[in-house]
Design a protein that fits this description.
Elements: H1 2-16, E1 50-59, E2 62-71, E3 77-86, H2 90-106, E4 115-122, E5 126-133, E6 140-141, E7 149-154, E8 161-165
Antiparallel strand pairs: 1-2, 2-3, 4-5, 5-6, 7-8
Helix pairs in contact: 1-2
Length: 171
């Protein structure tokens, strides 16, 4: 689960275009607690401006993503939050953290929690309606009508979909 959260967070931050992801040098470890200026000096001659850290812990049946972002030059905490979810939805918590970080640092809306509604071919003539995360994960088939369904759209609240279907006859 921690690897899933890490991968989602890295993908979101990279996709945002605001971050240049850097590899963490072998042996570098965040030791917890507060950070001081210079704690990131071991990250090389071109240190990052920000450090985003996240850790997944279990609290009973809930997963908790503890997330912190630091100014890598001064060591100041810029953003810190806890995101609770089921273990199965830990990727959503990582998407939420990425969006919050983009908003906090750059004043822009992140795309990590964006969904894509689309029509996909099933068999020779059928088309069904699907929903997935913006990165293609968490694919969910919304219809199973076995006919041609098309022109899917979602309401502003994101709670309902409308589509044209050839279920019984022509629309």
């Amino acid at each position: 689960a921690a690897l899933e959260a890490r991968d989602a967070l890295q993908y979101d931050l990279d996709f945002s275009g605001y971050f240049r992801l850097a590899a963490v040098p072998a042996g570098w470890r965040y030791k917890g607690g507060s950070l001081a200026p210079g704690d990131f000096q071991s990250l090389g001659t071109d240190p990052p401006a920000f450090i985003a850290l996240a850790e997944v812990k279990m609290d009973g049946q809930q997963a908790v993503l503890e997330a912190r972002a630091y100014d890598a030059v001064r060591g100041d905490l810029i953003h810190g939050s806890r995101y609770r979810s089921s273990l199965a939805n830990i990727r959503q918590a990582a998407h939420h953290y990425a969006d919050d970080l983009v908003q906090k640092l750059f004043g822009a809306q992140g795309v990590g929690q964006t969904k894509i509604l689309f029509v996909g071919r099933v068999g020779k003539e059928g088309k069904e309606i699907y929903l997935c995360d913006y990165d293609g994960e968490n694919l969910l088939k919304l219809t199973s009508l076995g006919k041609l369904n098309m022109m899917a759209d979602v309401n502003k609240a994101g709670t309902k979909i409308a589509f044209v279907s050839f279920l019984n006859t022509y629309p």
